[in-house]
Amino acid sequence: MHLKRWIGRLVAAALLAIIALTPRAATAAESDLVPLRFLAEAAGAKVEWDGETGTVTVVTVDGVTATLRISETEALVDGERVPIGAEARLVDGRTMVPRAFMERLLGMPVTWDPEAQQATVDPHVVKAFRLVSALKRGDFDAVSGQLSPALREAISEQTWPQIAQSLAPLGELGRPQVLGTSATAVHYNVDLLLPFTQAPMKLIVRFDKDGLVDDFHLNTYTPVQPAGDPPYADPTAFIEEEVVVGEAPWALPGTLTLPAGEGPFPAVVLVHGSGPHDRDETIYAVKPFRDLAQGLAMHGIATLRYDKRTFVHSQKFGAIPKFTVQEESIEDALAAVRLLAADERIAANQIYVLGHSLGGLILPRILAQDKDGLIRGGIALAAANSVLDTLLAQNQIMVETGQVPPQQLAFIKAQVELLRDPAFDPENPPEGYLLGTPHYWHDLVPRASELLKEETRPVLFLQGGRDFQVPVSEFESFQADLAQRTNVTFQLFPKLNHLFTEGEGEMSTFAEYMVPANVPEYVIKAIADWIKSMPQEE
């Protein structure tokens, strides 16, 4: 089951404190009194009033029970005394308590308009809490009723117990915490922190236009401060528009970045590396695609970046039994090219595709499938030529730098040997094959350079000298295989890692990705200069 592919990452997650309803002193701003029932019921909670004892009982949407009495300054929350922040009062028949207490009790942001006498809570947040609560209880009938038809079709009733079982090693689940909400051209998203006792997780619940859960994305929660906008980008020099790449059921939200002024502009489609990525290709504290988009805009070049299919439609896509990079990335990259070609602000004869990591590996396939000749050329950043050679070299470096134990290298060697066997059949993988979906990995075995040997369009290869994920040996492999080609250009940047940010030392590690950094301006300039050097076609 596809969720199990994520569980292997959970072991490395850092232990964090459980987010709980912890007592804290109320400030003057927090002591504004609000009607308890109005806010609680707006957040989906149940409220009961005992007039004889002056006691209110609240049961929140995620099952937290609180009781409090009029004139008291503490509430009993799941058996623990918690300060209310002020004395609970009865005003005109309403129980009044500080708003800050209600937010902590309900676990979500709430507002109160005293003039309109109206409480406001994001209904999507309430639904997200109900989803988590139903899953926690094992109430799969309740879960099914919240799903969009597309998600209900993709995930069978038998899948839900498997999800619960796969999450069991994470321990007990505490109260969800709202990390934020956002709207894209495809979904309304609610981000929740799920504080399991062993490893916290981040859950993104995606709602369709009808308010139904259309998908959800689950991953380890790593609270890092991402790098800000690159210093070389002037926000007044470009505009960014929300767009939709592709069509249902795989429509993807994206960002079109356009330089200020009159077009038409040259344009670049940005294609992600492996894994479920957002449009910025956010990896811990680094946002390479955001930097590339804003940086290229300063050189008069537009870009289109979008959330990856495995990020937006995680569960629906993962339910496909035999998916390959064709469905994962190639189809969407070509759809992005077509979107640019139909925009009159884009120079139709100057559309390029830039692929990073896995995106660079599949760049030759994208070019080969461009049947309408819409792509002017390609740019490959940290591209692997041979996936199998890359796996071996990558794990060898990680063992040498102490990032993984030697046993992992031994495991990878055994898996690579199975995949190299010409008799490998993805329909019936051999005993001992454990790397992942066999159709996916078998599809990646051919060398990427084979398709480029007949490609006449220009291709630029850029490589970081300190890259341990796709080592320089793969860059050199492309150079050797394409030595007779005059349409390829190679440039090596000694200080850069796999994410194209700088670091110290001979070789980078994963820890370097936790440091906020921007793609250097000289990388932006190298790409822009190459694009501008292309002969203009009529």
Rg measurement, Å: 26 Å
Strand proportion: 15-25%
Question: How confident overall, as mean pLDDT?
Answer: 91
Name of the top-level CATH class of the largest domain:
Alpha Beta
The dominant shape is globular
Number of domains: 4
- The separation of the N and C termini measures 51 Å
Layout of strands and helices, then pairs:
Elements: H1 4-7, E1 33-35, H2 36-42, E2 46-50, E3 55-59, E4 65-69, E5 74-77, E6 80-83, E7 89-91, E8 94-98, H3 99-106, E9 111-113, E10 118-120, H4 123-137, H5 140-144, H6 149-154, H7 159-167, E11 177-183, E12 188-194, E13 201-207, E14 213-220, E15 238-245, E16 252-259, E17 265-271, H8 288-297, E18 302-306, H9 309-312, H10 314-318, H11 325-341, E19 346-356, H12 358-361, H13 363-368, E20 377-381, H14 387-400, H15 406-420, H16 438-443, H17 449-452, E21 459-464, H18 472-481, E22 488-493, H19 521-532
Parallel strand pairs: 17-18, 17-19, 19-20, 20-21, 21-22
Antiparallel strand pairs: 1-8, 2-3, 3-4, 4-5, 5-6, 7-8, 9-10, 11-12, 12-13, 13-14, 15-16, 16-18
